[in-house]
Amino acid sequence: MRSAPFNNGSVQQRLAAVCALGESVKDGVTQTEEVNNHVHSTYSFSPYPPATIAVKAAQAGLQTVGIMDHDSVSGAVEFLEACKAVNIAGTVGFEMRVNMDGTCVQGRKTNNPDEPNISYIAVHGIPTPRLSGMERILEPVRAARRERTRREVTRLNESLADRGAPVLDFATDVLPISEAANGGTLTERHILYALSLKLIETCGPGAPLVDFVEGPLSLPLAGSLRERLLDPGNPHYGYDLLGAFKSQLVPEFFLPSGHDECPSVFDVVRVANENGAIPAYAYLGDVGESVTGDKKAERFEDEFLDELVPELVDIGFRAVTYMPPRNTREQLARLQSLCVQHGLMEISGVDINSSRQSFNCPILLEPQFRHLADAAFALIAHEKLAAADPTLALFSTENSLVSRPLQERIEAYADIGRRMDHTRPETAINLTGQWQ
């Protein structure tokens, strides 16, 4: 993976490599009706630079793909240029955490396993001219997160030293594996990946490392994960080791976020709407027996969902985003019904942040989720049209379609999203004549 030219070098070098490949990346690829609007890049945590996301999505046969980094839109331009080069529909957004002070869920756990009163939200469909407007709220968030991450490394080091394990240097171990110097953010995953690389270097992959993790680190490994870590030829070794650490080590060093890192939900939603973007609440839902097998049983929003959804509308949210593989059909049917009742757009995406994950999400081909493809294409059209004319944003009060029901507007935008030339997205505005 690392040898691929579009996965290395500067932004310019990566784009040159993608442009050289062009649509040949689709040769022999079966096109599907699948979409994914939630892929992380190296500007948050991922093995994939923004240009690579476009290539991998095209190679997976996806119809649309979206870059969705934590607290950052700095990879957006590279990503969109790569999407044009390989002729795939691309959309830009970001994910961040906000505080829920002043809402009906203040103080409650919503969709964040680590902190009550702090919720994850997504901002989708940001028109390219408005990226700088969003960056003004993201830069101070990244600065606060960087400082907290530095303190978390210090806290983790105390635990590592007590166990006789090598410690991390924030400046030389953690920062260099991020894009923090280029407008990217830092996450707890960076800390864990830095530790994974340090232990692989110190112990060597395979049995010696497994012995160290289960011995001095006192972290149990079991099942297929243990088998993967016993294999020194495992191409996903660092990411698998990170996964082993995530649930067991994070509670030891995690520090609560402040309001400088998690601003008011009202402020963020207002800025998103002012910039023609689509703010979306990220539904998590209670976990009983985990559908994906990677979550412990835990309660989130389901108990008060009937109360939360109308509150989202009052705050100014335009959509709810969810990941179909992570919930039961019953949970999602209830959520979908509430979205229809309260006029909220439904947006899908399955977050990709590991080389082991597939870009495909075949569940979207099932009847219950087919409409999410329309929503993805509508998102694409919204973003491109609003870039040319802010009144053409899907939720603009000056939009000539504003009096139509939301589903009709989504269908009209989806039609343009499907018909437009994705190698020249700026020409999408030429397809709106029928609306006049």
Strand content: 5-15%
What kind of oligomer do you see? Answer: single chain
Radius of gyration: 21 Å
Task: Tell me the series of helices and strands, N- to C-terminal.
Answer: HEHEHEEHHHHHHHEHEHEHH
Largest sheet: 7 strands, mixed
Strand order of the biggest β-sheet: 1-2-3-4-5-6-7
The end-to-end span amounts to 48 Å
Ranges where pLDDT stays below 50 over 5 or more residues in a row are 290-294
What's the overall geometry? Answer: globular
Q: Averaged pLDDT, please?
A: 94
Number of helices: 14
Q: Any idea what the CATH superfamily of the largest domain is called?
A: Metal-dependent hydrolases
How many domains would you count in the coordinates? Answer: 2
**Which CATH C-level class of the largest domain is it?**
Alpha Beta
Protein model, in words:
The chain is of the alpha/beta class. The chain folds into two domains: 5-133 and 277-435, Alpha-Beta Barrel (TIM Barrel); 140-253. It has 14 helices and seven strands. It has helices spanning 11-21, 50-59, 76-86, 131-162, 170-174, 188-203, 207-214, 223-230, 237-253, 265-274, 305-315, 329-342, 371-388, 406-419, and strands at 35-39, 64-70, 89-99, 118-124, 278-282, 319-322, 345-348. Strands 1-2-3-4-5-6-7 form a seven-stranded mixed β-sheet. Strand 1 (35-39), helix 2 and strand 2 form a beta-alpha-beta unit. Helix 1 runs parallel beside helix 3 (76-86), helix 2 runs parallel beside helix 3 (76-86) and helix 6 packs across helix 9 (237-253). The protein is globular and about 70 Å long.
